[in-house]
């Protein structure tokens, strides 16, 4: 690899060599190290004390067998993961992903990102992530429950409100969090609300947690627009995915006067020029757990479904990738640039490939990275933990106002930090540097950990 500061080059090589085959993890590490050149030049204490090398090595990695019975009575075996990456700032905090693509490299990339994201929120939370290669698609409710119970039967001994606090991610929503929390309660005989977040509103959950990542993404973009005295009003927006993050991003864009004309799932995308009908989308994706192609069918001639192509070929002013990692290729980036897109903000984790990010920079497209843009989800999880600790519950309006304020603060931190390190307007540099400095200073203060 070239381009890294000399002191960081060796660290990257060591990470690549010690973690063979974990390409997403390598990519996430490189992306952060790429921003830290000016920091290590100004602060030799971070490299002298091996803070960055320690940050790249998780505190603890747990891999376990998850055996469960399917509806036909056959034994199924999946692999479970929890990577407890860094707890300098607070208990490990980060979601669980259930998707067939999950392996250690994905969990480590997500856990590594989570350290800096959680640091950026300014809240007392460390970074971790977990999940399984279990595929929930097409599984019955009972199968999902049996899987979650088996998963928690191992995980429970590693987590706790002061230790490690999981939440949802791809394939893990409130249904799965319910089954996981139920099994934790049953095994430990403790109604310990603070052990997971994303809980239902009647059993310890927080208002706005469901909406938080999507809303927070749009609040962040609203702040970007305000810096140029602009607004969402009349903006044409394309969103990828149609899961939790995408749905609530669409809802908030519409509330702020923009029009989302396209969204997708792994089967393809729909274009609805009048604006995505959110009630219909929720009915299909949340209630019926259906496919995005069903949306076009239900809208008759008003919407088109395009199978197997990238949604980034639909022209827009603002693009919000809200599906999965590396979903925006260099070719997709060029399609967005050619169609006049001005802002790309990552609702998902690392959805833009390094090539795409490079092209956006060269074309003057504003690029805002996931660890800043989608931090509203984990920030609201931390608000859920606060409410659990004080046995309190706040109103929707109060919680949403706190989320909006946190997103404004993160946006401000990114811009002022980028300025302070000689890269004005570079949101990625600002997010990486600010996220790094807070956790690195805590690690120095806590001695050799
Ligand atoms: P969901 O499972 O609710 O939705 C994921 C969506 O992305 C689905 O529409 C899914 O389609 C689509 N998708 C997944 N893989 C692909 C693919 N290879 N190509 C195209 N579409 C795909 O997950 P979330 O909305 O919770 O998470 C989305 C992203 O946001 C992830 O990167 C996650 O890490 C990140 N994130 C989530 C947070 C949260 O609070 N939930 C917090 C911060 C970040 P299909 O159903 O066909 O698979």
TrEMBL record:
Superkingdom of source: Bacteria
Binding site for NAD(+): 213, 244
Record keywords, A-Z: NAD, Nucleotide-binding, Oxidoreductase
Stored InterPro entries: Aminoacid_DH-like_N_sf (IPR046346), Glu/Leu/Phe/Val/Trp_DH (IPR006095), Glu/Leu/Phe/Val/Trp_DH_C (IPR006096), Glu/Leu/Phe/Val/Trp_DH_dimer (IPR006097), Glu/Leu/Phe/Val_DH_AS (IPR033524), Glu_DH (IPR014362), Glu_Leu_Phe_Val_DH (IPR050724), NAD(P)-bd_dom_sf (IPR036291)
Secretion signal, residue range per the UniProt entry: none
A GO term for molecular function: glutamate dehydrogenase (NADP+) activity
Stored SMART domains: ELFV_dehydrog
Protein name listed in UniProt: Glutamate dehydrogenase
Lineage, broadest ranks: Bacteria, Bacillati, Actinomycetota, Actinomycetes, Mycobacteriales
Residues annotated as site: Important for catalysis: 169
Positions bound to substrate: 93, 114, 117, 168, 381
The protein's assembly and partners: Homohexamer.
Location of the Glutamate/phenylalanine/leucine/valine/L-tryptophan dehydrogenase C-terminal domain: 206-447
Family to which this protein belongs: Belongs to the Glu/Leu/Phe/Val dehydrogenases family.
Species per Swiss-Prot/TrEMBL record: Mycolicibacterium frederiksbergense
Pfam families, alphabetized: ELFV_dehydrog, ELFV_dehydrog_N
GO cellular component terms, A-Z: cytosol
A single GO BP: glutamate biosynthetic process
Active site per the UniProt annotation: 129
PROSITE patterns recorded: GLFV_DEHYDROGENASE (PS00074)
């Amino acid at each position: 690899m070239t381009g890294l500061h000399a002191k960081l080059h060796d660290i990257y090589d060591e990470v690549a060599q010690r973690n063979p085959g974990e390409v997403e993890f390598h990519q996430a590490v490189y992306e952060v190290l790429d921003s830290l050149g000016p920091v290590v030049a100004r602060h030799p204490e971070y490299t002298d004390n091996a803070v960055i090398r320690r940050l790249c090595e998780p505190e603890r990695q747990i891999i376990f067998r998850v055996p469960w019975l399917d509806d036909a009575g056959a034994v199924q075996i999946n692999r479970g993961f929890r990577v407890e990456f860094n707890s300098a700032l607070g208990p490990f905090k980060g979601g669980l992903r259930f998707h067939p693509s999950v392996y250690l490299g994905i969990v480590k990339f997500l856990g590594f990102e989570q350290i800096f994201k959680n640091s950026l929120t300014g809240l007392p939370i460390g970074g971790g992530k977990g999940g399984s290669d279990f595929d929930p698609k097409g599984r019955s409710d009972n199968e999902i429950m049996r899987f979650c119970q088996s998963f928690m039967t191992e995980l429970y001994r590693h987590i706790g409100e002061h230790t490690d606090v999981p939440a949802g991610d791809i394939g893990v929503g409130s249904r799965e969090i319910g089954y996981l929390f139920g099994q934790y309660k049953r095994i430990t005989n403790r109604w310990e609300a603070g052990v997971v977040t994303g809980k239902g509103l009647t059993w310890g959950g927080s208002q706005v947690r469901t909406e938080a990542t999507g809303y927070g993404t749009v609040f962040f973009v609203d702040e970007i627009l305000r810096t140029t005295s602009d607004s969402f009003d009349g903006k044409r927006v394309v969103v990828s995915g149609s899961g939790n993050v995408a749905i609530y991003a669409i809802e908030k864009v519409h509330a702020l006067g923009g029009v989302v004309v396209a969204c997708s799932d792994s089967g393809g995308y729909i274009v609805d020029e009048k604006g995505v009908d959110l009630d219909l989308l929720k009915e299909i994706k949340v209630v019926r757990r259906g496919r995005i192609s069903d949306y076009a069918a239900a809208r008759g001639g008003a919407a088109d479904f395009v199978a197997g192509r990238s949604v980034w070929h639909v022209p827009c002013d603002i693009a919000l990738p809200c599906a999965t990692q590396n979903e925006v290729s260099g070719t997709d980036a060029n399609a967005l640039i050619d169609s006049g897109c001005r802002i790309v903000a990552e609702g998902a984790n690392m959805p833009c490939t390094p090539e795409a990010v490079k092209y956006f920079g060269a074309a003057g497209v504003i690029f805002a990275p996931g660890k800043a843009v989608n931090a509203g989800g984990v920030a609201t999880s931390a608000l859920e933990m606060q409410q659990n600790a004080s046995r309190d519950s706040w109103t929707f309006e109060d919680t949403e106002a706190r989320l909006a304020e946190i997103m404004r603060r993160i946006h401000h931190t990114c811009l002022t930090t980028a300025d302070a390190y000689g890269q004005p307007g570079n949101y990625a540099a600002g997010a990486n540097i600010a996220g790094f400095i807070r956790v690195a200073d805590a690690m120095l203060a806590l001695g050799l950990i």
